[in-house]
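Lab manual, section 2.4: Encoding a predicted structure.

Procedure: take the sequence of the chain (328 residues), apply the prediction step described in section 2.3, and record the output as structure tokens. A sample record is shown.
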Amino acid sequence: MADLSTTYMGLKLKNPLIAGSSGMTGSVEDVKKAVDAGAGAVVLKSLFEEQIRNESGSAIDSNEQLYYYAQAEDYIRSYTRGNDLREYLDLVSGSKNAVSVPVIASINCVSSSEWTEFASQVQRAGADGLELNMFMLPSDPRKDSSQNERMYLDILEKVTKLVSIPVAAKISYYFSGLANMVGKIAATGVSGLVMFNRFFSPDIDIETFKVKNSHVFSTPEELAISLRWVAMLSSRGPCDVAASTGIHDGKALIKQLLAGAKAGQVASVLYRKGYGAIGEMLSELDAYMRRHNFSCLDEMIGKMSVDKADNPAAYERVQFMKYFSGIS
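Recorded output:
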């Protein structure tokens, strides 16, 4: 068997397949299932900043005693937030005690407020690393691109100063200058970059007149977006890159590794096929490495990055050439 071990964020992984943050990593039992199936690391289900805010707000709205007790609002906010945070810290510590692979906590951030202090509590709970899932929709016409980018950098700068465990930024590709922004993110001191996160996709129910979710899971076709950017940026920054979105089989994982990713995160495929998909993908990776005489992952990671590919310009092509138009 080929040596599948790698390093990501300075963490040693027995293989490059990471069970990404999702409901499939939302309990200690699920984390154990993912690791038993072969996952090299686990990113826990995200704790959402706005979720805690909304839940504390709902508790306040339902409390009739609020009108008679001036400090009730502060108490309810603190209690609701505290309960959710304690449950998450229990998930971190319980998972760390249950498995031997790196356990990475995940926070979905929307602001650079005192919320960032929670990162230090995650570290004390035993997390091996912290992934910050970040996306602020640039919908405010009063803010320009530099102001929107500053929000990301503020969060990362605060968190990396608070903790000594490695921090990864999970970002989107919705930046006016993605390559430039990645350089700025790397300068904050992060150890990893995850490309890319997945969003709530709004749809409209035309009968009930309600906004609903659409396209909950990724598809194999979405691989191309992250593959392009992994290949272009993985060898041009000081931090490790993990690929995310669209990895549904071993071939997709192999492609991302060749493009330069140190690891690949999977989530949607676990919902569709179960944890057994992890072993299938790793078997396919091992067979590929033996077939091409790669004795270890270091020999293949980045072999097809923009700096090493025979035709690097292909990654920068955005329009079909005329003679491709009739080819499916």
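Check your result against the sample. The CA atoms of residues 65 and 72 lie 8 Å apart.
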